[in-house]
Amino acid sequence: MSFGAFVLRNIVATGFRSAVILTCVALVAGFALFTALVTEGSEQSLSKAKQRLGADILVVPKGSESRVQTALLSGRPTTAWMPKENLDKIAQVSGVQRASAQLYLASLSNASCCAVSEMFLLVFDPATDFTLQPWLEQELGGPLKLGEVVGGTHVFVPEGDDFIMLYGYFLTLKATLEATGTGLDQTMFMTIDTARDMARISLSRAEKPLEIPADSISAVLVKTVNSERHDVAQRIQQDLPGVAVVERPDLFQAFDQRINILTKGFFAVLGVSWAFATLTVGLIFSMSANERRREIGVMRALGSPRHFALRSLLAEAALLAGLGAAFGLVLTYCGVLLFHDLLASALDIYFVLPSVVDLGVLLGQILALSMASVAISTSLPAFWMSSGESVGAMRARI
Questions:
Q1: Do 171 and 107 meet the contact criterion of CB atoms below 8 Å apart?
Q2: 197 plus 109 within the same structural domain
Q3: For residue 193, what pLDDT band results from cuts at 50, 70 and 90?
Q4: What is the count of structural domains for the chain?
Q5: How far apart are CA 351 and CA 262, in angstroms?
Q6: What confidence tens digit (pLDDT) does each residue in 42-98 have?
Q7: What's the rounded mean pLDDT across residues 202-229?
Q8: Are 272 and 221 part of one and the same domain?
């Protein structure tokens, strides 16, 4: 009988114990992958959201800072208005390099162009914008024209149509932004001229017209000179008492805190479950080694190498660990992939799934760690079973 056949025979012969080991490893490996996907994916989402915003400071009407940040992160439309003259005042503050206004609007419910029921419309001014314009210049070779828009990954042209229609207005989707795992994926970006033209057309074509208050803006994005961000933020707050100033490191702070709490909880549960699974696997292999003393004694008496028992037990552990981990990883990733939006909603966080390369590295790391943990837990009984004293005791009983 070959070595591989011998190992497989022992696994099949102890079917229940093998199933327990497979289950333990699959559960722990799956939970490890779930933890990594959620925690690393949420941190990556927040990082991408901050990069997409592209500003050192966000200035919004006082009392609306939480709602605006939630809208930017979740894609849930909100209303926030302040006088347009605030833009000129902010631009004149010492240390401000560039300042650009934005309007925050909403599509009608159940828009056919979006994979979500209601879409966040982010309106920017091409004359002053420093966040989207560089990307548009690079990717499209120029700015957006009247009636042209850019959408997040969940924004699309309805099948069979050439345009997106909002408020009775036909829009051309020029490009789709990279997925962030946040509400920016269900956000449509358009110029102020397109928004005003859409509001004008909506008066006669839409069931409910789009209303844009005159001489009003929702927020101002600020780019500061060098490293003067905090000083500039204080100056803006002093000069404009009716606004709230959010610095880049403080953006989405509430979500950062929520992610930190979830991360600590997940890793605490993962640590306990990993230790419990390792202990359980070690106990199971100890029982197996004790029951197989006579079998190993017979094989040694027939001339089997001294370390045959050690190799066989470690091979069983490696095979069971590899199969269990692979099953747990595949099942977990498929589940996360299928129920991504449901999980994000249940956990109240946003996370983007890793690239193929990053996913491959992550799966390899968890697989290796799973096999190493099982190997460590089986080392003691394996060495004991293959020791000279143990073999002597086995031969004495033959």
A1: no
A2: yes
A3: very high
A4: 2
A5: 13
A6: 888 777 777 767 788 999 999 888 888 877 777 777 888 999 999 999 999 999 999
A7: 87
A8: no
Helix segments in the chain, DSSP class H: 3-13, 15-53, 65-74, 85-91, 133-139, 192-205, 229-239, 253-291, 293-301, 308-338, 340-347, 356-386, 388-397
- The owner of tokens 């202990």 is 279
The average confidence (pLDDT) of the chain is 81
Residue 390 CB contacts under 8 Å (≥ 6 apart), including other chains: 293, 296, 384
Cβ neighbours for 70, distance < 8 A, ≥ 6 positions apart: 76, 78
Q: How many CB atoms lie within 10 A of CB 83?
A: 16
In this structure, are 283 and 176 located in the same domain? no
Q: Which two tokens stand for residue 285?
A: 């292999």
Exposed/middle/buried for residue 4 (C-beta within 10 Å: 0-12, 13-18, 19+): exposed
Please give the structure tokens belonging to residue 194.
Answer: 């397109």
Instruction: For residue 360, count CB atoms less than 10 angstroms from its CB and return exposed for 0-12, middle for 13-18, buried for 19 or more.
Output: exposed
Which of 189, 216, 241 represents a domain boundary (last residue)? 241
Residue 181: what are its φ and ψ, rounded to 5°? 80, 5
Encoded tokens for 60: 């919004």
Domain membership of residue 178 as a residue range: 63-241
Q: Is 251 part of a structural domain of the chain?
A: no
> Residues 6 or more apart from 13 whose CB is under 8 A from it?
none
Please report, in angstroms and rounded to a whole number, the separation of the first and last CA atoms in the chain.
Answer: 22
What per-residue confidence (pLDDT) applies to 54?
Answer: 77
